[in-house]
Amino acid sequence: MDKSWMHKSRLSKDYELGVENFIKFGFSNTTSSYICCPCLKCGNCEKHSRKGVRDHLYVNMFDIHTCEDDDVGRVKEIIEVANEEYSKDPTGFEKLLIDAEKPLYEECKKYTKLSTLVKLYNLKVRYGWSDTSFSELLETLKEILPTTNKLPNSLKEFANAIECPECGQSRWKNVKDTNERRKQIPSKVIWYFPIIPRFKKLFRSIECAENLTWHSTKRINDGKLRHSVDSPAWKLVDMKWPDFGSEPRNLHLALSADGVNPHGDMSSKYSCWPVVMVIYNLPPWLCMKRKYMMLSMLISEPKQPGDDIGIYLAPLIEDLKLLWESGVECYDAYREEPFNLRSVLLWTINDFPAYGNLSGCCVKGYKACPICGDNTNSIRLKYGKKMAYLGHRRFLARNHLYRRQKKSFNGKKELDTIPEPLYGEDVYLKLKDLEFSRGKKNHKKQLMNRSTLLDIPGKSKDGLNARRDLVDLKLRPELAPISSEKKIFIPPACYTLTKDEKRCVLKTLSEIKVPEGYSSNIRNLVSMTDLKLNSLKSHDCHVLIQQLFPIAIRSVLPKHVRYAITRLCVFFNYVCNKVLDVQQLDKLEEDIVVTLCLFEKYFPPSFFTIMIHLTVHIVREVKLCGPIYLRWMYPFERFMKVIKNSVRNRYRPEGCIAESYLIEEAVEFCTDFLSGVDPIGLGTRKSQDHLDTSNIGRPLSMGVPFKPQQELLHQAHQYVLENTVDVQPYTE
Predict the structure, then answer these.
(1) Domain-by-domain residue ranges, the chain?
(2) Does residue 543 register a pLDDT over 80?
(3) Beta-strand runs (E) in 569-714
């Protein structure tokens, strides 16, 4: 039979007819309902049904075992897919065709020049090789290979060879200013990477196009919160705009913007603001992967954009409005049909200061809580010179015992009700007639203190001024500072650790062993000399408060204080789960309010910053938007680390980031069509195979025998019992 169709694009009609004729011929010569699958993955070693063979031939291609197998055929497909886009540059397109056909050297049958360049650059991008090391690698490979090889001599020649015509053009667009807007926009440089052509490219990959409908076809719908599609926010969009929700390929997006110092040092003089887009149509294990994080904008120059960030986002907003209102024509490679692609921006993901810039809400001062608004319960501490956000008893039930307690709190009964949050229409009506001034304003820098339990000088919230504030508020007279002729004595509080207790806690943390990749090396963060924790990153704090801290404080502190701290840790541990039971959220919301009330009983007012208060609203946000792990900042912070590593020229950091990201995106697009090449942002095939269910029977490494002491064994046994669900009724 004619085999010419095997060399053609899987998107072509000839390939489709060839596949159907092959399946018809194969099953006509057997009485079984299965035949050997000739795709690249199966290699005639596994049998499948008609549908299975057809799916494999479209996803994995045909294994034809010739000089044009594997990568050669797939590189041709890259060219064919890009034919329409590259038609504006026939010279560059012709060069790509020549490189796709040209073998690496005369007798090479597996690699062409283009496939070799793509694979080499894939390695460079994935492992962050420097330009110097990569140039030396090229020189070495040039000497090792036969003299007829077509490998470039230098990195510059290499970049010119791999650069496709579209990537060579400007991928950011200038803002088309009117005279009125030109007066408003400050003098900053905006690097904008258009999102529409990149969305189209995602749908040109069969695998990506299939994954982009996962939320509609493959998710588990059991009433629990597993994905953003289970959230009321997503369902509200589908209900209010049914024409949008009826098309599963329409994209649901989130936007993250945060400042980063591209120079990698601790200086805060230079701030670059990347704006990153993520897609929630994907499976939850892919949503926050580097491969699918789209850098859509870079706002450069030393100072932060502040409240003017909305002006800089104008080009991105224009494209988002186009995708929402009318959409764009797109081709689905999985279903092999064109369709009208639309998108909606569900929310933004930021730290709290950036949240204030993007939303226009006040995040400082007396009304810093964006949910409570004008009803924020706040006081300014006379001696600490800071704002304290107390009064969490009003979030309790009307008949709760704590509402009637006076001495343990502020000396008064709590009669206020839960503040009603403002809805979007209410906010609009309040702000529609107001005028806002633009431009930077001078703000006094406020320092945040931490490490209250360890009582670290200069970082504790339980200092002399905090005790004076207690006296001023007429709270806990037993903790009032005692003045003498030589110094002022601060009585230890119930939450203050002694030196022996500090050593016990830090020793426990230093000896904890966790699986590889679970967290950073906790032992390196512990200083037994100074009795404190050093150089904690945000994810380290996250792991400590969720998992490790309840273990470390089990034998220290009074029981009532330890109980309150453990309740807070258990709350964060549960609310950060990947699967949440909706029926348990109301109980969880009640528990965190009680926990904050317990903290008000034991900790000083200076402890209650706005970040402590915001925990009372976390469950509400989960109810509206779904699981937290799809909306937190950790993946974006790791992404910021990646783009910071691409800065080679400190004088032009944004240019380095833009050039590196564009090349990575081009290589990633080509990688989707090559076999045996690991994706840049999804880990290696080896790590994926390690998690494959087919490897369950693989033997584990040999264990090391260990005989614990009786006391340690008793503690472990008690810990297991206290954390076993079946034992809870007996404990209660």
Answers:
(1) 4-55, 66-164+647-691, 179-350, 376-429+449-630
(2) yes
(3) none
